[in-house]
Amino acid sequence: MRVLGLIAAALLLSGAVFFSTEVRLEYFRIQQDGSEFVVTWQTSVEQEVQKYVLMRKTTLTNDFGMAMEASPHGIAKEYLFRDSQVYKAAAEQLDYRLEVVYSNGARETLTTQSINYTSTAIRRTWGSLKALFQ
């Protein structure tokens, strides 16, 4: 009986090695490019990944909502998302959360990062007002 238990444990451990689910991020970046936000990331390990889910939260929504989904396309290749759908108030904080969904249905949060910004709409409005009085 003890031998069967050891064999079962060995099989479970070897199965975990062969069917492990893991993602390691090389980097995750958020940059503002004009009126858009550019989110990029790259992985160094990508095992049994079904998809990536990028979530976004603004000060106005105060809850994460899906910004995009991406199918895995291999390690050392950059993932890129241009976000032009953010409503920008005067001074905001924008949070992005990257999640991975594995082939077995498990879900894991890889990272959450924030960026602070001032709306370009306010700058444009101020510039327009100045031009009216010149």
What attributes characterize this protein structure?
134 residues; 7 strands; 22% helix; three-stranded antiparallel beta sheet; Immunoglobulin-like; alpha+beta; four-stranded antiparallel beta sheet
What spatial form do the alpha-carbon principal axes imply?
A: elongated
Q: In which order are the strands of the major sheet placed? A: 4-3-6-7
What is the quaternary state of this protein?
A: single chain
The H-level CATH homologous superfamily, spelled out, is: Immunoglobulins
**Helical residue percent band:** 10-25%
Order of helices and strands: HEEEEEEEH
Looking at the structure, the CATH topology is Immunoglobulin-like
- Major sheet characteristics: 4 strands, antiparallel
Arithmetic mean pLDDT: 81
Number of helices: 2
Number of strands: 7
**CATH architecture descriptor:** Sandwich
The total tally of domains equals 1
Written overview of the protein:
- The protein has 134 residues and is α+β, with helices and mostly antiparallel strands.
- It has a single domain, classed as Sandwich (Immunoglobulin-like).
- 22% of the residues lie in helices and 51% in strands.
- The chain is built from two helices and seven strands, in the order αβββββββα.
- The protein has a four-stranded antiparallel β-sheet with strand order 4-3-6-7. A three-stranded antiparallel β-sheet has the order 1-2-5, with no helix packed on it.
